[in-house]
Amino acid sequence: MQNSSEPGRKHKLIEYANGPSLEEINGTVEVPKGKGFWKTLFAYSGPGALVAVGYMDPGNWSTSITGGQNFQYLLMSIILISSLIAMLLQNMAAKLGIVTRMDLAQAIRARTSKTLGIILWIMTEFAIMATDIAEVIGAAIALYLLFHIPLVIAVFITVFDVLLLLLLTKIGFRKIEAIVVALILVILLVFVYQVALSDPDWGGIISGLVPSAKTVATHPTVAGMTPLSGALGIIGATVMPHNLYLHSAISQTRKIDHNDEEDVATAVKFSAWDSNIQLSFAFVVNSLLLIMGVAVFKSGVVKDPSFFGLFKALSDTSMLSNGVLIAVAKSGILSILFAVALLASGQNSTITGTLTGQVIMEGFIHMRMPLWARRLVTRLISVIPVLFCVWMTRNLPAVDEHEALNNLMNNSQVFLAFALPFSMLPLLMMTNSEVEMGKRFKNSMWVKVCGWVFVIGLTYLNMLGLPDAFAGFLGDGASASQISTAHIFAYVTIVLVLALLAWCTYDLYRGNQRLAKAHRDHAEEA
After folding, report:
1. Residue 367 β-bridge partners
2. For the residues of 129-157, what is the DSSP string, one character each?
3. Which of 282, 349, 368 is nearest to 128 (CA)?
4. Which DSSP category does 320 fall into?
């Protein structure tokens, strides 16, 4: 493998990369040997926080709050199920990175053809850009709400978060993890404070955690949403493909002895603890968002679920549900805290989105760029549709501009539905394989069964939502024939996605067979 981190070596803007995942930080964090549980857990804590950020980004906010507004605590169980699925998948991703010493992109590329690798890279790049669009919108709106900066200027300001990234790359990965944890705590404390003031129905919350047939029913329809569409929205905004690539890479930042199986087992164990604890925080945040929708506002009063509408509702005493909230809202603190949490969420994505982009570029096409350049390119591409949306609605009433931005954010998430199966399926196949993982670290039977149920189920639900997602691009004034055409395009896309999945499965199976043969030949020679 080529080492690009040799001292004195002059780096180019774009260069070949076929070394360890995120080579600059791979194996750089020291971990204690033979110490107590809590000291060891602290040393391994951090990567889970970077992953958890993706489960509480601005894309989650409107789906959870609107779901609470429309169906009370009914969809709490969907947030719980999504979080449990996330925990299982993220543990697989971390284990893949630690045991094989490859991130998910590298592992897929090593087991599939070059052509398929390029297709999957392009698809995953679109998914990351779609996620970035949500972050641009969230951060720009937060700047507008907090400092009254015009939206066009606020969108451009989000490009300069590349300077923040440049600063972070100088301070060490451990400090980056600490900053991310601090921002997560800001988000958590804001919503704990607001929900605590609202005095929610805890009995209703607990009963909502139990799944029922009503959770995925196609009726009633409230404000254009059914329980099923609300559930699909929460699932789609929660489980994201880029997190699996990211976790498989940053789980390798700890310095361990790969020749010592016990040391590897310790890393797998404590990475799982770290991931599950951090994703539990993400579950709490998403639950608090849904509870806000139920308990903070009067039932059905929030007609505008965009960030603008929620900010305004938190300062409008006629929309709030009790006297304590009304008294606090008069000071403006509720709405300001909401905007601060939104900005913190957007800044967290600056770090994780860039690292993920580097992982997939190096893994799929063996190309490396400096992190600042990678961030600048993806952010400049992501701001184009946002600026276009703001420009097209500049002469319309403010409510139309807000709705257009909200629709853009929601519609951009459709790319996640395409990309998710192509990260979940390879991850499951490779971690199920004894050839890839070894007898000790391959998935147990219950993990295999749950994994296949989740992968097939999530793929089905994502494809199920595509016809309506395609129709959503047409806006509210679309004719029946236009909607019908959009549905036809969606069904053609579904067929293409399934065909590509079959190709990917076949290539991965053949790659596994080649690896098994190589192992047998090596054993015979030895």
Report:
1. 16
2. HHHHHHHHHHHHHHHHHHH---HHHHHHH
3. 349
4. B
Strand residues in 215-357 grouped as ranges (E): none
Number of H helices, E strands in the chain: 23, 2
Q: How many CB atoms lie within 10 A of CB 203?
A: 9
Is residue 96 within 8 A of residue 429, CB to CB? The reply is no
Contact 461, 232 (CB under 8 A): yes
Contact 370, 361 (CB under 8 A): no
Separation CA 119–CA 501 (nearest Å)? 12
Which residue in 92, 477, 79 sits closest to 290, CA to CA? 79
> What's the chain's Rg over C-alpha atoms?
23
Q: For residue 337, what are its two tokens? A: 């805290």
| Chain CA centroid to CA 101, Å | 23
Whether the model pTM is above 0.85: yes
With H, G, I as helix, E, B as strand and everything else as coil, classify residue 4: coil
Least Cα distance to 50 among 341, 347, 363 occurs for 347
Tracing tokens 């800001």 back to the chain, one arrives at 186
The neighbour count for residue 68, using CB atoms within 10 Å, is 29
> Could you give the dihedral angle defined by the CA atoms of residues 371, 372, 375 and 379, in that order, rounded to the nearest 10 degrees?
180
**CA–CA separation, 105 and 357 (whole Å):** 11
Q: Give me the chain's average pLDDT, please.
A: 84
pLDDT tens column, 84-106 = 999 999 999 999 999 999 999 99
Give 21-53 pLDDT, tens digit per residue.
888 888 888 898 888 899 999 999 989 988 888
The 3-state DSSP class for residue 56 equals: coil
SS3 assignment, position 513: helix
Q: Which residues on adjacent β-strands are paired with residue 368?
A: 15
**Rounded CA gap, 146 and 308, in Å?**
11
- Quote the CA–CA distance of 469 and 412 in Å, as a whole number: 10
Rounded to whole angstroms, the Cα distance separating 491 from 332 reads: 47
C-alpha–C-alpha distance, residues 297 and 290, integer Å: 11
In whole angstroms, what is the distance from residue 187 CA to residue 196 CA? 14
Question: Would you say 87 and 341 are in contact if contact means Cβ atoms under 8 Å apart?
Answer: no
Q: How far is CA 218 from CA 165, 226, 350, 488, in A?
A: 44, 6, 37, 22
Residues contacting 262, CB < 8 A, separation 6+ = none
How deeply is 403 buried, as exposed, middle or buried, from its count of CB atoms within 10 A (0-12, 13-18, 19+)? buried
